Amino acid sequence: MEKRRISTIIIATAFFTIFFSIDFNATVGFNYGDTLFSLYNKTEHNAFFKIDAALRYVSNNFTFLFDIAILNNKIYNDPFSENYYGGFYFAMNDAKLKFKMENFQISFGKTNMKDVVYTPYSLFVSSVDYPRNTIEYKYEDGSFTYITKWLQLNNLQHVADPNEKYRSANFKVYAAKFDKIRFGYEEINVYVGKEFDFEYFFNPIPGFFIQYVNDAGRPFSEGIGEANYIMGFFLDYLDDSNYFYAQILIDDINMNRFFYPTSYQNPDKIAWSIGGIFSLNKGKIGLYHAGATKYTFQPSAEFGKQRYYGYTYFPYITYQVSNETTIFPLEFLYAGYKYGENNVAFLVEYEPKDIKNLKLSLEYVVLGERSPVNPWGDRVTYIEGTHLLDDPVLEYRLFLGTDFKYNLLDTLSLCLNSTVGYIWNRSELVDVDSDNVRKPLMRPKSGNNQLYFSTSFSLILKFSF
Prior knowledge:
The chain is mainly beta. 11% of the residues lie in helices and 48% in strands. It has helices at 2-19, 36-40, 81-84, 198-202, 207-216, 256-259, 330-333, and strands at residues 23-33, 46-58, 62-71, 89-101, 104-111, 132-140, 144-153, 167-178, 181-192, 227-238, 243-252, 269-280, 283-292, 301-302, 305-306, 318-321, 324-327, 343-352, 358-367, 395-407, 412-424, 427-430, 441-444, 450-464. It has an 18-stranded antiparallel beta barrel. The protein starts with a helix and ends with a strand.
């Protein structure tokens, strides 16, 4: 059976090699030290190999891409890893088909999504690559951009009604361009109970009106059950040398402060991001800042029932590896802003003019308690009012990064990536047991400090045939 699978891959590769002109990339890398998994789990420094192989065909109207990885870092369960592949397993980096005609394009596959702003702190689509099944339709000309994209989220497990297990989201962008300035509206609609919703994808009206009208019924309800509407705006500027952006996301806003100031005040669930890249005499510098209030991106819990429409790729923090509980890094979990709720982050990047392909970075992040899959943390309901970093203990991260690429030949490059840093009051998993939630969360722990070090060497081979 395994030989048959390998033969199929070889035959498919040979077919595309004969009939198309294809770009081929292969990367062999060695990694040592910490990873995001060791940051969240108490593991020793790990050494592992990673091999990436990508085939890409691009024409004026069509793009074909598949990019796979082979690793032996033992962070997932795999039924064939030890018996057939010497401890290695396969993973998908990116895979998609894209069709383009003048100003229109449609693409689909298990691919990495991108936000419309160029920043490591994007809010509506995570800047951390994590491929998911998507379908995207895009129209763009010199004045207007419209994007609608379906995103498959991971399904719920062990639910009584099989129809309730599905989780998906739809992402939309409406943007206008004025010379070098773009201004746009973005939204995310997360829904539970249906794999794909036709209207959220094809109806160009913003999702707030779709949810409102269909749930209310005209005359009968056409809603899909649980749904969460997230919206916001962006503004950016781009010229030949500089780029600047600002972005805001609103998961929920407290309107009672304006209409009913004497009534209860629900929390504002808001994230923001600002920054840009600026050219200097000695190179380029990138300055970025982002943050989010408590409860942003969380699911909700109402009337004793948990809602599952949190904007996360997965509805769980932990999973089992070799019968041991493993924490899935939250930077891979959040589908929006990579640090999620209850934090502020600052990043400086520098690319010197005199040294090609070198990037230096310094990042400082402050994090409070985070509960991405648990409504209201360890409480049955929210704490009234808006909250940000008001926990008794906070986690602090300071990281210095180096990214260097040296071209040995036209087709062969050597890459060095290294990160060194320190974490104060590193967050730990805390079990929760309340009336309507039974999922853990991450909470900073005083004195739980950790030195972080990671380095990787990679050889990249690129050629066309």
